[in-house]
């Protein structure tokens, strides 16, 4: 790859300090300016070569058109739904993420919400703080022997499955790309969503936010679920339709929800957050020291590799000699294909190294527009 000149980078959110340190060690000038309003960002971005964000900075078409020198938008994390990838690509700006850096943290929070839903832990803790000793009100149910439906069997879905299997849950799931043969290897039986909805005691969603996943759980699909089903969303607000969820909670069709993400963050409409059967967090899935260290370090190393003209996938130091990147390629007619790239470094104890590369289509949006 030809080297790309990056002399200045703006970090617009709280990213691990290693990110700034690595960039600076490599001669890149870094400015950290968190919490900018849209107009401030548009004024600030115009001269920078690179921008590093998490999920709160909305890098929309206006911001991109105000950026005269921008060559790279680095997302220290997974989801790039806060970046207008089409607008960036049209301007020749590369969008990079660090998709495996926060997988374990997001999976662990998902499991914490599933466990909290089964035993009312947050509500009971709050009641204790208020001076109560109410053992009847917080009667729970075991997870053992229950059915967990996992919609989206990628990195996080896989990690959630193995952890919840250790609680004796049966894990079933659906994914249009990961094959049933692959997920059978991790103990997840795949089936159609029509078959999945009525079987689940718990449902957790782990898909990207895109037109085909908006409202996966909606009035129609809640109606197909078991009465009292409990749901978790640690992926993106809107994959579970918020108004439909509130209706399902009120009718008791849904017995409880664990929500880490919202359509609007922070949510101005408080009705879900305040519902007694909802446990919510302020988008904490990736908020661990470990995940932030990995994501901050990875995005900096990827930018440095790009500056040096090295491979885009060569910088990742973690996950057992495996590097993963998502490449988002906008095609014609509003079609976007996401290609997963995985580089495996195989080492034997005494002899040489061997590298293999896997490319696979992770998602295809709007594909009907092609036919
Ligand atoms: N709460 C947090 O802080 C947090 C942290 C990390 C990731 N996330 C979010 O979690 C989600 C999953 O992340 P990941 O790393 O596992 O992604 P991933 O790309 O590894 O997996 C996503 C999976 O969803 C599947 N998918 C796509 N469309 C689908 C559909 N219509 N129905 C079912 N499956 C579908 C894909 O085939 C893929 O296997 C993303 O939205 C990401 O932004 C949130
Ligand atoms: O997609 C992600 O990586 C998560 O939602 C984490 O977002 P954050 O970096 O803003 O915590």
Describe this structure in words.
There is one protein chain. The chain has 371 residues and is of the alpha/beta class. Helix content is 29%, strand content 23%. The protein contains twelve helices and 15 strands. It has helices at residues 17-25, 38-44, 61-66, 85-90, 103-119, 121-129, 155-165, 180-184, 193-196, 219-224, 242-250, 289-307; strands spanning 8-11, 29-32, 50-53, 72-75, 94-97, 147-151, 170-174, 188-190, 202-205, 229-233, 254-259, 278-280, 322-330, 336-347, 353-365. Strand 1 (8-11), helix 1 and strand 2 form a beta-alpha-beta unit. Helix 1 (17-25) runs parallel beside helix 12 (289-307) and helix 5 crosses helix 7. The protein is globular. The site of 3-phosphoglyceric acid has 11 residues, from loops. Homotetramer. Belongs to the D-isomer specific 2-hydroxyacid dehydrogenase family. Pathway: Amino-acid biosynthesis; L-serine biosynthesis; L-serine from 3-phospho-D-glycerate: step 1/3. Pfam families: 2-Hacid_dh, 2-Hacid_dh_C.
Summarize the structure.
With 371 residues, this protein is of the alpha/beta class. It has helices spanning 17-25, 38-44, 61-66, 85-90, 103-119, 121-129, 155-165, 180-184, 193-196, 219-224, 242-250, 289-307, and strands spanning 8-11, 29-32, 50-53, 72-75, 94-97, 147-151, 170-174, 188-190, 202-205, 229-233, 254-259, 278-280, 322-330, 336-347, 353-365. The relative contact order is 0.13.
How are the SSEs ordered, and which strands pair?
Blueprint lengths: L7 E4 L5 H9 L3 E4 L5 H7 L5 E4 L7 H6 L5 E4 L9 H6 L3 E4 L5 H17 L1 H9 L17 E5 L3 H11 L4 E5 L5 H5 L3 E3 L2 H4 L5 E4 L13 H6 L4 E5 L8 H9 L3 E6 L18 E3 L8 H19 L14 E9 L5 E12 L5 E13 L6
Parallel strand pairs: 1-2, 1-3, 3-4, 4-5, 6-7, 6-9, 7-8, 9-10, 10-11, 11-12
Antiparallel strand pairs: 13-14, 14-15
Helix pairs in contact: 1-12, 5-7
The structure holds nicotinamide-adenine-dinucleotide (NAD) and 3-phosphoglyceric acid (3PG).
């Amino acid at each position: 790859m030809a080297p790309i000149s990056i002399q200045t980078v703006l970090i617009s959110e709280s990213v691990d300090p290693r990110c700034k340190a690595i960039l600076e060690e490599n001669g890149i000038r870094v400015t950290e300016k968190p919490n900018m309003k849209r107009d401030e960002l548009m004024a600030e971005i115009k001269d920078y070569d690179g921008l590093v964000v998490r999920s709160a900075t909305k890098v929309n078409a206006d911001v991109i058109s105000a950026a005269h020198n921008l060559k790279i938008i680095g997302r220290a994390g997974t989801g790039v739904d806060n970046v207008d990838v089409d607008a960036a690509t049209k301007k020749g700006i590369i969008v990079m993420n660090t998709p495996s850096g926060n997988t374990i943290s997001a999976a662990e929070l998902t499991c914490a919400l599933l466990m909290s839903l089964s035993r009312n832990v947050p509500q009971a803790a709050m009641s204790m703080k208020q001076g109560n000793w109410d053992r009847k009100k917080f009667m729970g149910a075991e997870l053992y022997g229950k059915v967990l439906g996992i919609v989206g069997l990628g990195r996080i879905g896989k990690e959630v499955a193995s952890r919840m299997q250790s609680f004796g849950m049966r894990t079933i799931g659906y994914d249009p790309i990961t094959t049933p043969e692959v997920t059978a290897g991790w103990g997840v039986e795949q089936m159609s969503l029509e078959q999945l909805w009525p079987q689940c005691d718990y449902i957790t969603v782990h898909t990207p936010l895109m037109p085909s996943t908006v409202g996966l759980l909606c009035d129609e699909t809640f109606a197909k679920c078991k009465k009292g089903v409990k749901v978790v969303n640690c992926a993106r607000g809107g994959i579970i339709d918020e108004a439909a969820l509130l209706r399902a909670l009120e009718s008791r069709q849904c017995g409880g929800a664990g929500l880490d993400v919202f359509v609007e963050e922070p949510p101005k409409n408080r009705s879900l957050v305040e519902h007694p059967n909802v446990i919510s967090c302020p988008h904490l899935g990736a908020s661990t020291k470990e995940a932030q260290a990995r994501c901050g370090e990875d995005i900096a190393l990827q930018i440095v590799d790009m500056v040096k003209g090295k491979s885009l996938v060569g910088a990742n130091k973690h996950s057992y000699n495996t590097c993963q990147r998502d490449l988002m390629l906008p095609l014609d007619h509003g079609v976007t294909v996401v290609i997963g790239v995985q580089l495996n470094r195989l080492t034997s104890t005494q002899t040489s190294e061997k590298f293999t590369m896997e490319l696979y289509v992770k998602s295809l949006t709007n594909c009907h527009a092609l036919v």
